[in-house]
Automatic annotation (TrEMBL):
GO molecular function, one term: ABC-type transporter activity
Transmembrane segments: 26-50, 62-83, 104-127, 139-162, 169-189, 231-251
PROSITE patterns: ABC_TM2
Domain ABC transmembrane type-2: 24-256
Membrane topology value: Multi-pass membrane protein
GO cellular component: ATP-binding cassette (ABC) transporter complex
Protein name per the record: Transport permease protein
Keyword vocabulary terms for this entry: Cell membrane, Membrane, Transmembrane, Transmembrane helix, Transport
Entry coiled-coil feature ranges: none
Compartments, as annotated in UniProt: Cell inner membrane; Membrane
Length: 265
């Protein structure tokens, strides 16, 4: 195994161990989207009437969106360990070690995406309760969508956390900046019948396209999706988002930072 892969996997494994040693964190990241899904799903059940979707309940419509929300919270909050590692001196030790800076980015991103994916797959088990069934091909496409969304969210969290000095600031940015990205993705309501200005924002929002590649396999066969220009465009944008996030994270890590050295006692 190459040095890059070994270091990346070691850092990713560290993130996983760290996460599962905090059971309250595991419960919290799953419980919040679950409560959102149940409360909003039942609350809007009587008023959800969309032309062409008469047979779709709001619980069913909101289901892919709440899984995307779970990916958001879990993946982004997992990158908060960057700030904690800096405070503990661990990050400085990794930065001065003779390892590739790419390994640092990949280790954090793989760890955060894996944590989010495990939790989302647990939530995915509820699909049969809604009458949704997935063949192996459709399941692979949904999981692939989760991975792309997880990488996109993880790199976004990485970029935000890298330059911050406190977890409080990270939480504030999370609520002010990231939640609107999710809310304007089509997770809560369809893109149709919204003001044009809002629709334009939703269309340029990469989270909207991540939601599309997660939702579409529930309602169409893989062969049909692979010839659907709308799905292929959403897939291409999601790939660009994930790859671009990794590239920007690499650039960010390679920049010389001030204030990274441990404070003298």
């Amino acid at each position: 195994m190459s040095s890059l892969a070994r270091v990346s996997l070691s850092l990713a494994r560290r993130e996983m161990v760290r996460f599962f040693r905090q059971p309250q964190r595991v419960i919290g990241t799953i419980a919040q989207p679950l409560l959102f899904w149940l409360f909003l799903g039942f609350g809007f059940a009587g008023s959800f009437r969309i032309p062409g979707m008469e047979n779709v309940t709001y619980l069913e419509y909101f289901y892919p969106g709440v899984m995307l929300m779970l990916m958001l919270f879990s993946a982004v909050f997992s990158t908060i360990t960057i700030i904690e590692d800096r405070d503990a001196g661990f990050l400085q030790g990794v930065l001065v070690a003779p390892v590739s800076r790419l390994a640092i980015v990949l280790g954090k991103v793989i760890g955060a995406t894996s944590i989010a994916l495990i939790q989302t797959m647990i939530f995915l088990a509820a699909a049969p309760l809604l009458g949704l069934t997935l063949g192996l091909g459709s399941l692979a496409m949904v999981v692939g969508g989760f991975v792309l969304a997880g990488v996109g969210f993880s790199t976004l969290g990485f970029l935000l956390a890298w330059g911050m000095r406190s977890t409080a600031a990270f939480h504030a940015v999370m609520m002010v900046f990231l939640m609107p990205l999710w809310m304007l993705s089509g997770a809560l309501f369809p893109l149709d019948n919204v003001p044009m200005a809002m629709k334009a924002v939703m269309l340029v929002n990469p989270v909207s396209h991540a939601l599309e590649i997660i939702r579409a396999p529930f309602y169409a066969e893989p062969a049909a999706l692979l010839t659907d220009s709308h799905y292929l465009l959403a897939l291409a944008i999601s790939v660009v988002w994930a790859v671009g996030g990794l590239a920007l994270s690499m650039i960010r890590v390679n920049r010389r930072e001030t204030g990274l050295a441990p404070k003298a006692s």
